[in-house]
Amino acid sequence: MPVTITAVEGIPEVRAGDDLAALIHAAAERQGLAFEDGDVIVVTQKAVSKAEGRLVDLNDVAPSPLAVELATNWEKDPRHVEVVLRESKRIVRMDRGVIICETRHGFVCANAGVDASNAPDGRLVLLPLDPDASARRIRDGLRRLAGADVAVIVSDTFGRPWRSGFTEVAIGVAGMLPIIDYVGKVDTQGRELRATWICVADELASAAELVTGKLNRVPAALIRGYAVPRGEGSARDILREAEKDMFR
Amino acid sequence: MPVTITAVEGIPEVRAGDDLAALIHAAAERQGLAFEDGDVIVVTQKAVSKAEGRLVDLNDVAPSPLAVELATNWEKDPRHVEVVLRESKRIVRMDRGVIICETRHGFVCANAGVDASNAPDGRLVLLPLDPDASARRIRDGLRRLAGADVAVIVSDTFGRPWRSGFTEVAIGVAGMLPIIDYVGKVDTQGRELRATWICVADELASAAELVTGKLNRVPAALIRGYAVPRGEGSARDILREAEKDMFR
Q: Of B17, B35, B5, nearest to B207 (Cα)?
């Protein structure tokens, strides 16, 4: 049986206070999709953040002297730089107009995940405060509405060192373990495996991006046919411990 | 229409000199799979390297003094360390028993992609010399055998900074562009997009890993229903230029 990845289409523009599980469930029903036990639902961070009201109005931001200085050097909006600094607990690199941050959650990414897209309404989108909790809420909602025990991933678009182009990663999970541990397992030849931990949450997030895309407003995808490792995992399980990281 | 990911099953253990396209085509036919124009075939590096005879016998390796010293410090086989050093053109980090290398192709990964699995027959598997060329050969073979114009990705399992767990990435491509460039594109709200380049080759490689897995001997997957960006791309397009990389 193949693994299938289906866009959940027709979800309206998400607003603060919206019940994302209800929006996803209604859109899936209109499409004739019924969620099943074992399905994986991947929801983009932007939709989650909007539903949770994680927006900041640039007019409400008073930039610090550091933000003003950085912004001046790089021809950026100092209020935007200020928001990035506030969302960070550590700066990993700051160079060439790019700030690689460790977010309050521990994710390492550019601009602390603050959406730097043109904001005609003058607002920036921040990461959810607790993306695991966001995923759990959507999972609980879908269990209630669809009667199905699904896993949920909240995904975001991150860059990475050495390789051009962004890929989608998991910043929140519910109802699954994000990493499969093959330690001690052997392949069909009886050889111990080389790559011993596979981050399937990130692979599922990337697979979902093949249908959510970037230009079409598709904030959710259904992945079916993949035997996701069940358990009460957290996206924090994906964060590499400082003492094991060679690139901090 | 969903995107589907199907394991190409029943491919026998690959040996040096094997025609991988023929093995994949025959296995797909036995499975009732007929390749179509626009399909993406993802083939794991290990199968490609074995078919191309990219193996080295540890008994033939004379370790350098540096390899001996490193191996002694880390309780490793000095011949294995020697092979890693030979496959590298630059060492990015060398610490805690891990060597992060820039391979001759320019990929940055642990141990220069040299397979450190237990090798009961005393051999190590190296990366293909030119993984784009490997992908092109498979693509040409499948066009000849199946009459279909498919894209081919050669994938490998890489770690990454900051995030635990490995994911699958593209080290060779044929018949596609590995990165979609959204520069200047706007979303449905008329806002310019934030994450402007998406490395779809890596996302497709990760999606394929959901069915090739690690324990079952499935060296190839078929991805159907994804409108892959066509063109004569190269996995070199994914390598970030040194002057734009903050983590060299």
A: B5
Subunit contact B179:A165, Cβ cutoff 8 A: yes
- pLDDT tens across A181-238, in order? 887 776 666 666 666 899 999 999 999 999 998 766 799 999 999 999 999 999 999 9
**DSSP-assigned states of every residue in A55-118:** EEEGGG----HHHHHHHHHHT--HHHHHHHHHTEEEEEEEETTEEEEEETTS-EEEGGG---S-
Per the structure block, which two tokens stand in for B231? 């063109």
Q: How far is B238 from chain A (nearest CA, A)?
A: 5
CB contact (8 A) between residue B207 and residue A207: yes
Distance CA B4, CA B223 (A): 6
User: Cβ distance A93 to A142 under 8 Å?
Assistant: no
ipTM of the complex: 0.95
Interface test with A, best of B55, B160, B239 (most A CBs within 10 A): B160
* Chain B residues touching residue A178 (CB < 8 angstroms): 165
Strand (E) or helix (H) holding A208: helix A200-212
* Domains of chain B, first to last: 4-52+128-232 (3.30.1330.100), 55-125 (3.90.1660.10)
CA distances from B144 to A162, A168, B25, B138, B230 (A): 35, 35, 10, 10, 19
pLDDT digits (tens, 9 = 90+) for B77-125: 999 999 999 999 999 998 878 899 999 999 999 999 998 664 557 899 9
β-bridge mates for residue B124, sequence order = B56
- Of B107, B168, B195, Cβ closest to residue A203: B168
Contacts of B98 in chain A (CB under 8 A): 246
How many contiguous H segments (helices) and E segments (strands) does chain B have? Answer: 6, 12
CA angle A87, A91, A93 (to 5 degrees): 135
CB contact (8 A) between residue B238 and residue A182: no
CB contact under 8 A, B194 and A119: no
Of the partner residues A119, A161, A164, the one whose CB lies closest to the CB of residue B199: A164
**Which residues from chain A sit within 8 angstroms of residue B197, using beta carbons?**
164-166
Closest to B48 (Cα-Cα) out of B228, B226, B180, B235: B235
Per-residue tokens: A229: 């490792």
Q: How many CB atoms are closer than 10 A to CB A60?
A: 10
